[in-house]
Amino acid sequence: MNILVIGEPVNLQECHQKFGDKHIYSRVDEHRDAEKFLRNSDLVFDFIIEEEVHQFEIYNEYAATAFINTCKVSLGELVHLTDHALESTIFGFNGLPTFLSREVMEVSLWKPEDEPRLRRICSELKTDFLLVDDRVGLVTPRVVCMIINEAYYTVQDGTATRKDIDLAMKLGTNYPYGPFEWCQRIGVKHVYELIEALYDDTKDERYKICPLLKKEYLKN
């Protein structure tokens, strides 16, 4: 398959590691540079749509098949921004740093009738997938970032150190990483912006951002 990656070099590397060498990969930094590749691409992995939501119009202009990183913005919100009928087939996916390498790819549907097509694509990519609702944060990013936010509250309150929290979570829950290790791998920017998007979407007090996390986000 000809796969176009819209994002950073690390995103291209993640796709290459996940899907293997038999595919042909291209990468662009911005959506405005993607047009010349879209006609000849079998598949698009768009990691940065939340940075350029106005560029979602590109999927109205070309009949692409695209996986859209919907950790911070849902497919429904993106489609709502457009004024035209959607030409592309779109799926949401968990595109947070390091998460694509997981054995099962977390995916959401815009149209239920696209599920057979999704199954064919994932079979060709040789990856398993899990269907989740089209909601900001999907499932795993929502849970992990909420745990990270709570860990920041614990440090802010002076209850435990970051090192102790990481160790306790790994030993007590058998998580592969502690909250602060996970935050470092994902990036403070992504964690903060995802929780902010969750709070805007739900107004749930569970997603109120810890001031210490906000402070670190602003420093970065």
What features would you highlight for this structure?
44% helix; 2 domains; 3HC_DH_C; 6PGD_dom2; Rossmann fold; single chain; N-(1-d-carboxylethyl)-l-norvaline Dehydrogenase, domain 2; alpha/beta; 220 residues; 10 helices
Structure description:
This protein has 220 residues and is of the alpha/beta class. The chain folds into 2 domains: 130 residues, NAD(P)-binding Rossmann-like Domain (Rossmann fold, 3-Layer(aba) Sandwich), CATH 3.40.50.720; 80 residues, Orthogonal Bundle (N-(1-d-carboxylethyl)-l-norvaline Dehydrogenase, domain 2). The protein is 44% helix and 15% strand. It has a 7-stranded mixed beta sheet, with helices on one face. Helix 4 links the parallel strand 4 and strand 5. Helix 6 crosses helix 8 and helix 6 crosses helix 9. The termini are far apart. The relative contact order is 0.11. The mean pLDDT is 94. It holds the Pfam family 3HCDH. This is 3-hydroxybutyryl-CoA dehydrogenase. GO terms for molecular function: oxidoreductase activity, acting on the CH-OH group of donors, NAD or NADP as acceptor.
Give a nutshell description of this structure.
The chain has 2 domains: 2-131, Rossmann fold (3-Layer(aba) Sandwich); 140-219, N-(1-d-carboxylethyl)-l-norvaline Dehydrogenase, domain 2, CATH 1.10.1040.50. It has 220 residues and is an alpha/beta fold.
Topology:
Elements: E1 2-6, H1 9-19, E2 24-28, H2 35-38, E3 43-46, H3 58-61, E4 65-69, H4 75-80, E5 89-93, E6 104-109, H5 115-125, E7 128-131, H6 140-156, H7 162-173, H8 179-186, H9 188-202, H10 211-219
Parallel strand pairs: 1-2, 1-3, 3-4, 4-5, 6-7
Antiparallel strand pairs: 5-6
Helix pairs in contact: 6-8, 6-9
